[in-house]
Design a protein that fits this description.
Layout (H helix, E strand, L loop, with lengths): L22 E6 L6 H14 L5 E6 L14 E3 L8 H8 L2 E4 L5 H6 L4 E4 L15 E4 L10 H10 L3 H11 L7 H15 L1
Parallel strand pairs: 1-2, 1-4, 2-3, 4-5, 5-6
Length: 193
């Protein structure tokens, strides 16, 4: 996808200017129809609000609005598509928390750690699992009291080499600008035949 050719450092929601001692946790709010994930999201957000060293950012789709009491320190819906709001937020945050979403692919492509709490029956990209890409598939595995410490530890131990290997094995590694070039080359090769 050409979305990986955008230099995201040219776009900001101001998170880069937050104090460095604050960990920026980006929550991708689950759909309210997924009651189990929504309850976990609600509990995690309440837990992070107890920590002064945490900034909680909540991102959702416009069609899945989140009530005021669950909007964290910063709340965004899809503001624009190019670059996508999610990609800019992932780039500016320290870690993302997802709920069975394919946005984990964007996290890996941007070398950003995530915790994917996946209670869904059908699993998306479940192979993206490592020290910096944590999957939780059982609510009993969640320790709400130590969640923030766990997130901080994952961020602290993040390895660019680990993300490189994940991209190499499951996705792709390309320099900025090369994805579009490769797509055009592929299209031209099909036309020439």
């Amino acid at each position: 996808s050409t979305k990986y050719d955008i230099d995201l450092n040219n776009f900001s929601y101001g998170l880069k200017h937050m104090p460095k001692d604050k960990i920026k946790i980006l929550f991708f709010a689950p759909n309210r129809n997924d009651a189990k994930s929504y309850k976990i999201f609600s509990n995690l957000l309440k837990e992070t609000s107890k920590h002064e060293n945490v900034m909680s950012i909540v991102k959702t789709r416009g069609k899945h609005k989140v009530p005021k009491n669950l909007q964290g320190d910063m709340y965004l819906e899809d503001a624009h598509w190019y670059p996508h709001t999610s990609m800019v937020l992932i780039n500016e945050s320290d870690i993302s928390v997802t709920f069975g979403s394919t946005v984990t692919k964007e996290c890996v492509m941007l070398s950003k750690p995530f915790i994917n709490i996946d209670m869904k029956k059908f699993k998306h990209l479940d192979f993206l699992n490592s020290k910096s890409c944590v999957r939780i598939e059982d609510e009993k595995s969640i320790n709400y009291e130590t969640f923030v410490n766990t997130a901080v530890e994952i961020v602290r131990n993040k390895s660019d080499e680990e993300f490189y290997r994940l991209r190499e094995k499951y996705l792709f590694n390309e320099d900025l600008g090369n994805v579009s070039r490769k797509l055009l080359d592929f299209c031209e090769s099909g036309v020439a035949k």
